[in-house]
Amino acid sequence: MIGGEPFRTELLAGKTAFIAGGTSGINLGIAQAFARAGARVAVAGRNADKAAAAVAILRAEGAQALGQSMDVRAYDAVERALHETHDRLGPIDIVISGAAGNFLAPASGMSSNAFRTVIDIDLIGTFNVFRASHRFLNAPGASLIAISAGQAVSPVMHQSHVCAAKAGINMLVKVLAMEWGPSGIRVNAISPGPISETEGMARLTPTAADKAAWTQKIALRRFGEKADVANMAMFLASHSSNYVTGAIFGCDGGWTLGDSSGAIPAPATEKAR
Ligand code: NAP
Ligand code: COA
Predict the structure, then answer these.
(1) Which residue owns the Cα nearest ligand 2 atom 13?
(2) How are beta strands 65-69 and 143-147 bridged, if at all?
(3) In a domain, 61, yes or no
(4) Is 1 part of a structural domain of the chain?
């Protein structure tokens, strides 16, 4: 396997994690890694069937797991889900905010509501999840992790909504880290690059040619694995990162470094080798 192997550890034994958007894809990969590491895990998304299927996967890992149906755009529903997690699984040590929406559309082909929808899910959803979690946290010691994206720092055509939303998330993370640091609450973000076998990349690279074009722009020349992001989440969720807060961690194979596909010719000395 070229991608990261999942951690085999008891690093999160006895911890409770709440994962918004944890019912599929990258965030479910994180939920599975947390479950294997001994955490009790609640996952939440809109679709109740998806949540139930995710819970079955987490229970098969031996974890105490809870599935919830809620929309991150509805603050009261988010708060109810966190309250239930606290009551059933205990004070919350780890919160992941990973719910997101994405589609390719030029700004001129996007309604105001289309733009707002992604801002609502990604950015306001992250505010809702973190804000509502505050009173249910096991603090000091709690770790909050937003799932951002490289689009926060690298502009991408037909992604104005996602670029704006994820840039907002990066700044929200830094301000919350300052405001909640004195209570011993750490707030960080993971910024994944293109990750294989995900809904996000299925939407951004619908054809093999699209996928090849994206791959050419990644320094490591391959998409990442869900386990790569899960490994970084393990670090940020555990005491291994006790002195880390307000940081945005790229997990993107060098995608945000810029186009490294060779448009500028190599110098002669390089060519001679
Ligand atoms: P995914 O499988 O579609 O996961 C999205 C999750 O969020 C699902 O659990 C979904 O469940 C939930 N969700 C969506 N809208 C919601 C809402 N309004 N309220 C509550 N839950 C909602 O996507 P993914 O590709 O793995 O992406 C996961 C995260 O990684 C996202 O934050 C994305 O921006 C980020 N990311 C992904 C990539 C990539 O390569 N895929 C790259 C960079 C960043 P329901 O549909 O049931 O609500
Ligand atoms: N191009 C342009 N506009 C689009 C669009 C597209 N491909 N897809 C949706 N929209 C517009 C809709 O037309 C609507 O605008 P309107 O009211 O002016 O017509 C607006 O976006 C909201 O769409 P709607 O379908 O009502 O939103 P929703 O809340 O049901 O779903 C989405 C949210 C659109 C983000 C949907 O794709 C989704 O649920 N995504 C979650 C999964 C996902 O994106 N995973 C990848 C994560 S990186």
Answers:
(1) 114
(2) unpaired
(3) yes
(4) no
4 — pLDDT class (breaks 50, 70, 90): low
pLDDT of residue 5: 59
Residue closest to 97 by CA, chosen among 131, 167, 146, 136: 146
pLDDT band at 271 (very low <50, low <70, confident <90, very high): low
Residue 232 maps to a domain: yes
**Ligand 2: nearest atom to the Cα of 99:** 47
- Whether omega for the bond prior to residue 106 falls within 30 degrees of 0, making it cis, is no
Number of domains in the chain: 1
The whole-angstrom separation of Cα 161 and Cα 158 is 8
Q: Ligand 1: distance of its center to the CA of 25 in Å?
A: 7
Domain that holds residue 80: 14-249
pTM above 0.90?
yes
**Domain contains 259:** no
Provide the CATH number for the domain around residue 233.
3.40.50.720
Radius of gyration of the chain (CA): 19
Averaged pLDDT, 39-57:
98
Q: What percent of the chain has pLDDT over 90?
A: 91
Q: Which of 131, 142, 188, 135 is nearest to 12 (CA)?
A: 142
The CA 249 to ligand 2 mean position distance, Å, reads: 27
CA angle 9, 20, 18 (to 5 degrees): 45
Average pLDDT on 157-185 reads 99
Q: Is the CB of 25 under 6 A from ligand 1?
A: yes
